């Protein structure tokens, strides 16, 4: 039907369409089969990362919800989300109880606001996480960590110290934020309007490198391989080409792939360009300073940087066709 409808307007799917954007993985796959471009169809990488986190954090029923449901939920929803990972689950459960304790009575929130004002800090609101949104857990923990000393003061004044988070729990929550903050930052980067396959490749590569440098933990041990797996599942041959041109490597896992696949794809790109190549400009090979933070390195990955892909591709096309 798609091909027939396009033909009514004199459009040929094989020669006139540069790209198609579809909403939903199943629709993407169906359209790819119709136009015979399954190998070139890029599924959403941000959603792949989301699924990797859900694989690690949640039980099966909630992973199913995360896969299928896109409903908006009110931020005040107080239905607990069962976190599967035991290293952090108890701390998150206790933090939810603490957040609800302050949110249920305005008097308690007013006392916290007064302590924040006395300490010269801006008024802050504790947040409660919601189902299907792992990043809401991150937001809930981050909001708590920023004002943890003030919360402890209020609990002491109210003789409710039994509701406070233990030192061990505080450490676990800190580790959770350290691990998930880079993940959330990369998801946001991938969802920017100007994002491209080059930006996606470099951002995901930077994410894996960052997580590998973090201290060992049970959560990291499970999340890192799951992220690699989910990203590899959505990595198209075009992503392989970009990775190969920029790094000389063949993917996040550095597996030895069949070079013929990349060579065939580059050949198809050559044919699609009609044999036309632009003047080769020298690619930017400068390295990022090691002292830059993860967020600073992520900001340096810009769509403008992808212009060097054109030069690298042109140079490779010429060399491989000669």
Q: Spans of 5+ residues with little confidence (pLDDT < 50)?
A: 69-80, 276-286
Ends apart, CA distance between termini: 41 Å
Task: Tell me the Rg in angstroms.
Answer: 24 Å
Mean pLDDT: 77
Structural shape: elongated
Query: Tally of extended strands?
Result: 0
Major sheet, described briefly?
Answer: none
Query: Helix fraction?
Result: 55-70%
Order of helices and strands: HHHHHHHHHHHHHHH
- Strand fraction equals under 5%
What is the overall number of helices?
15
User: Structural class, from secondary structure content?
Assistant: mainly alpha
Short summary:
This protein is mostly helical. It is 62% helix and 0% strand. The protein contains 15 helices and no strands.
What do you see in this structure?
Helix 9 runs antiparallel to helix 10 (197-213). By secondary structure, the chain is mainly alpha-helical. The chain is elongated, with a radius of gyration of 24 Å. The two termini are 41 Å apart. It has 15 helices and no strands.
Question: Secondary structure elements and their pairing?
Answer:
Elements lengths: L1 H7 L16 H11 L9 H13 L2 H9 L17 H19 L1 H13 L15 H13 L1 H10 L9 H24 L6 H17 L4 H16 L3 H11 L11 H14 L21 H7 L6 H15 L1
Protein traits:
322 residues
């Amino acid at each position: 039907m798609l091909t027939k409808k396009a033909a009514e307007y004199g459009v040929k799917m094989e020669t006139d369409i540069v790209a198609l954007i579809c909403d939903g993985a199943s629709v993407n796959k169906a359209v790819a089969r119709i136009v015979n471009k399954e190998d070139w169809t890029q599924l959403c990488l941000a959603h792949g990362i989301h699924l990797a986190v859900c694989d690690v954090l949640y039980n099966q029923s909630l992973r199913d919800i995360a896969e299928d449901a896109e409903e908006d939920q009110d931020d005040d929803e107080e239905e607990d989300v069962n976190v599967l990972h035991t290293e952090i689950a108890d701390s998150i459960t206790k933090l939810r109880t603490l957040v609800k304790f302050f949110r249920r009575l305005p008097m308690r929130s007013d006392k916290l606001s007064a302590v924040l004002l006395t300490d010269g800090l801006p008024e802050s609101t504790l947040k409660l996480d919601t189902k299907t949104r792992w990043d809401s857990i991150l937001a809930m923990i981050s909001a708590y960590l920023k004002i943890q000393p003030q919360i402890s003061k209020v609990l002491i004044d109210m003789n409710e110290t039994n509701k406070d988070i233990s030192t061990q729990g505080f450490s676990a929550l800190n580790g959770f934020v350290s691990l998930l903050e880079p993940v959330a930052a990369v998801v946001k980067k991938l969802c920017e309007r100007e994002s491209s396959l080059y930006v996606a490749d470099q951002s995901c590569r930077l994410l894996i490198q960052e997580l590998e440098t973090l201290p060992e933990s049970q959560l990291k041990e499970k999340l890192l391989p799951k992220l690699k797996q989910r990203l590899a599942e959505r990595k198209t041959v075009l992503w392989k080409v970009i990775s190969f041109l920029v790094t000389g490597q063949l993917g996040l896992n550095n597996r030895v792939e069949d070079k013929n696949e990349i060579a065939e794809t580059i050949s198809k790109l050559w044919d699609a360009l009609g044999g036309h190549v632009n003047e080769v400009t020298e690619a930017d090979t400068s390295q990022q300073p090691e002292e830059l933070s993860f967020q600073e390195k992520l900001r340096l990955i810009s769509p403008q940087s992808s212009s060097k892909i054109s030069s690298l591709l042109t140079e490779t096309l010429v060399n491989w066709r000669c």
